Amino acid sequence: MTQKKDKQKVLGEVFTDERVREFLEVVPVGETDPHFTALERAYRGMKADNFATFVKFFVAEGKDINCTNANGETFLQVISKHRHSGPYITALTASGAR
Predict the structure, then answer these.
(1) What are phi and psi of 82, to 5 degrees?
(2) What's the confidence (pLDDT) of residue 21?
(3) Tens digit of each residue's pLDDT (9 = 90 or more) over 20-60
(4) How many domains does the chain have?
(5) Measured between alpha carbons, how far is 25 from 28 in angstroms, rounded to an integer?
(6) DSSP 26-66
(7) Per the domain annotation, does 61 fall within a domain?
(8) Within 10 A of 23 (CB to CB), how many other CB atoms are there?
(9) Residue 9 domain-assigned (yes or no)
(10) Is the residue at 87 inside a domain?
(11) How large is the average pLDDT for residues 10-17?
């Protein structure tokens, strides 16, 4: 399995609460859990502080923080393999991710 490049820095975009909430809305793609897709999109598109806000909104809306991908891995398990994921992991675990 080929590993994808680690998280890229996001530069220049301002994330208001409204903009952060836009990441909650995901159109399902194939068999992928839409909650997992939402987490992945937010992780790839936000700095850690914005992601922490997103996770709070995500959980408040009753979305599954421990949803899994096609391989049965939670989002936390997936990003735990990334070098610079520490602050993102903190946001997830503070909201009950395992």
Answers:
(1) -90, 135
(2) 97
(3) 999 999 988 888 899 999 999 999 999 999 999 999 999 99
(4) 1
(5) 10
(6) ----TTS-HHHHHHHHHHHHS-HHHHHHHHHHHHHTT--TT
(7) yes
(8) 22
(9) no
(10) yes
(11) 78
First to last CA, the chain: 23
Domain span at residue 53? 32-94
Residue 13 lies in a domain: no
pLDDT of residue 22: 96
pTM recorded for the entire structure: 0.85
d(CA 83, CA 55): 20
Confidence of residue 1 (pLDDT cuts 50, 70, 90): very low
- Structure tokens that stand for 87 in this block: 């602050």
Please choose, from the candidates 19, 62, 17, 60, the residue with its C-alpha nearest in 3D space to the C-alpha of residue 41: 19
Per the structure block, which two tokens stand in for 21?
Answer: 């909430």
